[in-house]
Amino acid sequence: MAVTAVAATLALALAGCSGDDGGTDGDTFKFAVVAEKTGAYADYGLQLEAGVKAAVEDINASGDYDLEFEPVVYDCQSDKSICVQSARDAVNADGLPAVIGPIVSVDILPTAEVTERAKVPHLVMAVLNQITDDYDNTFRFSTQSDRSNQTVVDYVKAKLQPGETVAIVNATTDFGKGGAAQQKEQLAEVDIEPVAEIAHDPDQADYTPLVTQLKQADPTYVLLSDSNPADIAKLLRQSKELGLQSQWIGADASGTIDLAGDAAEGYMTVSPWFPNADNQELTDKLMAQGIDNPGWISAMAYDATLALAQAVQDGGTSSEEITKALESLSGFDGLARQGWTFSSDDRRGQESSQIANWNGQQYEIVWPES
Predict the structure, then answer these.
(1) What is the rounded CA–CA span in Å between residue 6 and residue 95?
(2) What is the distance, to the nearest Å, from the Cα of residue 24 to the centroid of all Cα atoms in its chain?
(3) What is the pLDDT of residues 124-133, one digit of tens each?
(4) Residue 275: strand, helix, or coil
């Protein structure tokens, strides 16, 4: 009898480690949210958490689901090693059957190593191609970087007049180098040669040399691949101070507008979603979670949580069942974007992004043209 009891206990422990208990606690389904709530990328993590919590409130209030949903939030403090350990705790020690987040590329890639080994479905907002190319347990709820960059190149191609030029600026991070390479290749396909290509290390105190180099090249458009809001804000402020007339087009890095202040006016960003301009209902829901300036991360997290709930409702509560249900998701309409569709061969997310201009008060979508 003692041997049987020990075996039973061991079996339960192993099931808990793999997420096979489905994260259920009575009538509640629990899932992990790994987020950079503090540290350098706190704006990202807080957006992620707000989107998840807004969706969970709506899901649980709807009466459309058999279970209540409860996120278990791990603050990984914008530290790669803590993000990895948080994911390990979530899927192994806590036996949670699905993970959402974190956001930043340096955090998400090693975290996906953990979830893939555990065979746990991982819902991501990260835009790097490799997150879905290299990990078959990931599902992207955003727009892949090459697709967003193609949106930018399409805009430039349509707007560029004879004699006008383009420059590329990028951070020397995986995100920055990858984005710049994609933009250069896509520009070459439409016979546009950048007049300047400038890479910069992150966290520079002064970008005057970079801006001076841009002034000498005098491009009409500067295509920026940088995900650090503090660095983007510095570039915008110092460009204004030094009288650079070029039009910046870059990623929608949470917190940039607030950090840049007046210098953000006229900054164009590429994103799968914009507050107010796209959906006032969702903007209001996110603001109710304490986010003064909702961004694409919170909106995509909202849709990801809705999709997870649908997968649990359709497929079941184990990691394997959730994965299969997500791979069968077709034409699923979120509140931020419509038509979420995945398969075992394509988990890349939305096909295109939008470009909007910050006018000092709100975003105005300029591309695609209506």
Answers:
(1) 20
(2) 27
(3) 999 889 999 9
(4) strand
End-to-end CA distance of the chain: 72
In the prediction, which pLDDT does 22 show?
54
Cβ-based neighbours of 61, under 8 Å, separated by 6 or more: none
What type of residue is 355? I
Amino acid 281 reads: E
Query: Checking DSSP bridges between strand 268-271 and strand 354-358, what pairing results, if any?
Result: antiparallel
pLDDT confidence of residue 253: 83
The first and second tokens of residue 346, run together, are: 């394509």
Count, in order, helices (H) and strands (E) of the chain.
13, 13
Point out which residues pair with 168 in neighbouring strands. 197, 223
- Cα separation, 192 vs 185, whole angstroms: 10
Residue 160's Cβ-count burial label (10 Å; 0-12, 13-18, 19+) is middle
Element (H, E) at 221: strand 221-225
pTM of the prediction?
A: 0.85
Can you give the C-alpha Rg of the chain in angstroms?
21
Asked whether the beta carbons of 50 and 285 are under 8 A apart, the reply is: no
How wide is the angle at C-alpha 329 spanned by C-alphas 323 and 330, nearest 5°? Answer: 160
**Residue 252 Cα distances to 28, 127, 205, angstroms:** 35, 12, 21
- Which DSSP category does 279 fall into? B
Q: Which long-range CB contacts under 8 A does 342-347 form with residues at least 24 apart?
A: 342/139, 344/136, 347/132, 347/136, 347/138, 347/139, 347/140
Q: How far from 53 is each of 33, 85, 183, 261, CA to CA, in Å?
A: 10, 23, 35, 29
CA distance 51 to 355: 21
What would the two tokens of residue 15 be? Answer: 């099931």
Strands 268-271 and 196-200: unpaired
Query: What value does the mean pLDDT of the chain take?
Result: 92
> CB-side exposure of 206: number of CA atoms within 13 Å?
4
Residue 327 contacts residue 342 (beta carbons within 8 Å): yes
Return the biggest CA–CA distance within the chain.
Answer: 86
Strands (DSSP E) contained in 233-362 are 247-251, 268-271, 354-358
